């Protein structure tokens, strides 16, 4: 029952975040891929799965989600900082986001290369 009640709230929050991103960029195709936020989450999760990072005061079952969230937050703050300090255009912010996405994707590929077989299976799935 709690999951059934929470699903519309979480779905509404995600829809609101997507609408805000599209409004800010004046681009109806903007999504988390545009800023590299999704790639940052994947890279953060891969750091925990391959045992590169471990936080001792957080339970093991929550570490993947926590580090993924922290990486998303840091990426969002980095893009917001660059866009406010340099006064770049919307197109520049989007290009910076795409560059960040490719950087995180390449680091994720590196993590897949150094992972063991079991870790690689977890990373891919």
From TrEMBL:
Which cell locations does it reside in?
Cell membrane
Q: Its Gene Ontology biological processes?
A: siderophore-iron import into cell
Keywords (A to Z) from UniProt:
Cell membrane, Membrane, Transmembrane, Transmembrane helix, Transport
What GO annotations for molecular function exist for this entry?
A: transmembrane transporter activity
Q: Does the keyword Transmembrane helix apply?
A: yes
Taken from the UniProt entry, a GO cellular component term is: plasma membrane
Residue ranges spanning the membrane: these are 37-57, 64-82, 88-104
Q: How does it sit in the membrane?
A: Multi-pass membrane protein
Q: Which InterPro entries does UniProt cross-reference here?
A: ABC_BtuC-like, ABC_transptr_permease_BtuC
Question: Predominant location of this chain?
Answer: membrane
Matching entries from Gene3D superfamilies are given as: ABC transporter involved in vitamin B12 uptake, BtuC
Against Pfam families, the record matches this protein to: FecCD
Q: Record's family?
A: Belongs to the binding-protein-dependent transport system permease family. FecCD subfamily.
**PANTHER family hit by this protein:** ABC TRANSPORTER PERMEASE PROTEIN MJ0876-RELATED, FERRIC ENTEROBACTIN TRANSPORT SYSTEM PERMEASE PROTEIN
> What name does the UniProt record give this protein?
Hypothetical FecCD-family membranetransport protein
The species this protein belongs to is Photobacterium profundum (strain SS9)
Q: Which gene encodes it?
A: FECD
């Amino acid at each position: 029952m709690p999951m059934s009640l929470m699903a519309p709230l979480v779905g509404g929050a995600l829809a609101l975040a997507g609408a805000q991103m599209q409004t800010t960029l004046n681009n109806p195709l903007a999504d988390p891929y545009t800023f590299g936020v999704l790639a940052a989450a994947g890279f953060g999760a891969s750091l925990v799965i391959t045992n590169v990072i471990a936080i001792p005061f957080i339970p093991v079952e929550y570490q993947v989600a926590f580090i993924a969230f922290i990486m998303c937050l840091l990426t969002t703050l980095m893009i917001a900082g660059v866009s406010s300090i340099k006064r770049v255009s919307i197109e520049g912010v989007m290009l910076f986001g795409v560059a960040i996405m490719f950087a995180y994707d390449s680091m994720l590929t590196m993590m897949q290369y150094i992972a063991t077989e079991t870790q690689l299976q977890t990373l891919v799935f």
